[in-house]
Design brief:
single chain; 18-stranded antiparallel β-barrel; disordered N terminus
């Protein structure tokens, strides 16, 4: 849902006119941040030519214009959240963002790039950026009764560790799990019950034949006195025959309509604190019918993941942690799909899994559309915190759950396509070393920096061509950012 920038400015102006014009107070919150990122060795291979990038089975990333090996960009993130207290029984809440993934890139100016200037050299003077859109990420009414709280409209959701359903409330989160519908939140002692109904898409129409819907309920037991919480979220997502949703890519670079589909997600969550130690586990299970395959038949869907986070607070300054995850991949079967993709907000490394490298050579894609999938990862980390500074270090090791075997069907989780393997593929994704620092200027402003070095595994040098070999290359990331929350 979008509205023009001019319309948004009018609404913002109305919000700040004298209080005598309105009886209802509006409280504004939000976040704004800017970062600059340098990723050398972004393609993870030493070749400076696109040898096998067009091969559906190859892990090679296509070259950008100029055949550069290093990616470098500056981005911003913007969130503006108004809250309007209507009365003791009702509150309206919203959140506005701009561009895609809650922001955009510095230097992204459609007007400057494309406007007809009669050959005037616009490079040398300032040009208006023009047609940017405002996105409505939240717009819902929260009703309070004696027995429950109701959220009606477009609202975000979070469950467990945020591995599948993630509300994107952290400052640098680029995505969010949105629910267009109704959620009831009922509390009975330490038990929380949250049934819901949601419209995923209407397909551009208002008939049953184009719609996709989701419904279910969450059940959570949270006893803070005993420092224990566990629960289960159960959802069913149905898509009708003419829904515009797409299935995973079966034929190379050709996505197919999802068609009739019914997928069930059972997400189990557990957390326990024991003195200075705490551990949390999330286990999402997915089953059902994914939709059409290349032959036009319905394909079954069965996938699972296990995600673990643990912390040991050694002192007021030092915290140590161990994280791990086992996320299913697909084996290339034409009749079933087995890969599970975690929420793009859920990341464990500075380089691995964090960026969609295909966006380097294909500007129609977003660098931030990247998901943890098809992997077993282990992470050791430490954190040192003072009043002003936080220093984080981590070592991450990862290997693929599924890899290509010569002569058999396989699935490329980077390009999301089935292929027949000509050669066998290594499962080694690599080992990464991360260093991050954050300076707390004050309660609202943060300045941060990050470094990552990925010792690339042979998984990424796979070409699916016996006559052509690629040599792996390690990647290095340097990032600086600043953000303000209000």
């Amino acid at each position: 849902m979008t509205m023009s920038l001019n319309r948004f400015c009018v609404l913002a102006l109305l919000a700040v006119v004298p209080a005598t014009s309105f009886a209802l107070p509006i409280d504004w919150h939000g976040a704004f941040g800017v970062d600059t990122t340098l990723l050398s060795g972004a393609r993870r291979v030493k070749s400076k030519a696109a040898l096998t990038a067009a091969n559906p089975g190859s892990q090679e990333v296509a070259l950008d214009a100029g055949e550069k090996q290093t990616a470098e960009w500056q981005s911003y993130i913007f969130k503006l959240a108004p809250t309007m207290i209507i009365n003791d029984a009702a509150t309206f809440k919203g959140e506005l963002t701009t561009g895609y993934a809650n922001g955009g890139y510095l230097g992204d100016s459609f007007a400057t790039d494309a406007v007809n200037t009669n050959n005037v050299p616009v490079y040398y003077h300032t040009q208006s950026t023009g047609g940017s859109n405002i996105n409505v990420r939240k717009a819902f009414l929260e009703l309070y009764s004696d027995t429950a709280t109701y959220q009606i409209g477009r609202h975000t959701i979070n469950w467990g560790l945020g591995a599948v359903y993630n509300d994107g409330n952290d400052t640098w989160d680029r995505h969010s799990s949105i629910r267009d519908g109704v959620t009831m939140k009922l509390k009975i002692g330490n038990f929380y019950v949250s049934p819901f109904w949601s419209k995923v898409t209407n397909g551009g129409g208002i008939t049953m034949g184009t719609a996709a819907k989701e419904f279910g309920a969450g059940f959570l037991y949270d006893n803070q006195e005993r420092d224990i919480a566990f629960g289960l979220l159960y959802t069913i997502r149905n898509s009708n025959q003419n829904s515009p949703l797409k299935t995973a890519i079966d034929a190379p670079y050709t996505s197919l309509p999802l068609g009739d589909s019914s997928v069930k997600i059972t997400d189990i969550y557990f957390k326990k604190e024991l003195g200075k130690f705490d551990v949390a586990i999330e286990v999402p299970l997915v089953s059902g019918d994914l939709g059409r395959n290349a032959a036009g038949s319905v394909r079954s869907y069965s996938a699972k993941a296990v995600v673990l986070q643990s912390n040991y607070k050694a002192s007021d300054f030092w915290t140590f942690g161990f994280d791990g995850g086992k996320i299913a991949g697909d084996d290339g079967s034409p009749t079933k799909f087995g890969a599970l993709y975690l929420n793009p907000n859920y990341q464990v490394a500075n380089i691995l899994f964090r960026y969609n490298l295909n966006a380097i050579g294909n500007h129609a894609q977003s660098i931030y559309d990247s998901y943890i999938t098809n992997t077993l990862y282990l992470k050791l980390r430490s954190s040192y915190s003072t009043e002003k500074w936080t220093f984080d270090t981590a070592v991450i090791y990862a290997k693929a759950e599924e890899a290509a075997t010569a002569g058999k069907a396989a699935y490329n989780h980077t390009k999301n396509t089935n292929f027949t393997a000509a050669t066998s593929q290594s499962k080694d994704l690599g080992t990464e070393i991360d260093l991050n620092a954050t300076y707390k200027w004050n309660n609202e402003i943060r300045i941060g920096g990050g470094f990552g070095y990925l010792i690339t595994g042979d998984y990424y040098s796979y070409t699916n061509n016996a006559a052509i070999t690629n040599e792996k290359k390690s990647s290095m990331l340097i990032q600086v950012n600043t953000s303000v929350t209000f």
